[in-house]
Amino acid sequence: MTEPIFHMITGGPRPVAPFSHAVEVDGWVILTGQMPTDPTAPDAPLPEGVAAQTRAVMRNLEIVLKGVGLDLSHVVQMRAYLTEFERDYAAFNTTYQGFFPPDRRPARTTVGVTALAVGALVEIDCIARRPEPSRG
Fold it and tell me: Which positions ≥6 away from 70 have C-beta within 8 Å?
C-alpha cells in the first residue's frame, strides 16, 4: 500500500470541520461529505429545499473531484444523509438521478439522520476510483 495523499482543493468548499477534502491511496479517492454551501460565499444562507441543496452538494463534490483530476463518472459509491428522510427522499432521488446516466449509477446508501452540520438537509460523501493507466 502506498502512503495516503491528503488533498485540500484550492477554491473548494470551506471545510466545516477539521478534515481533508479527499484522501487518496492506491487509486482509491475517498471524498469527505460535502455540504450545500457556496464555495464562493461560504457564509451565505443555504439554498432552500432539498432539491436545491442536493444540486449544491453535487456541485461541491464535482469541484473536489475535478481538483484531483476526476469527475462523477469515476465515482463507484455514494452515501447520502437526509435530515427529513420521509419528506425529502423522493425529491432527493429525482434531483440526484440527473447527475448520472441510468447505466452508470454508483452504488448508494441513503440514511436518515437527526441533524447535519450548518443546518443542512443533505450531505453526500463518496468513493471514486482512478482509472488504471493504459498499457500499450
Answer: 29, 128, 130
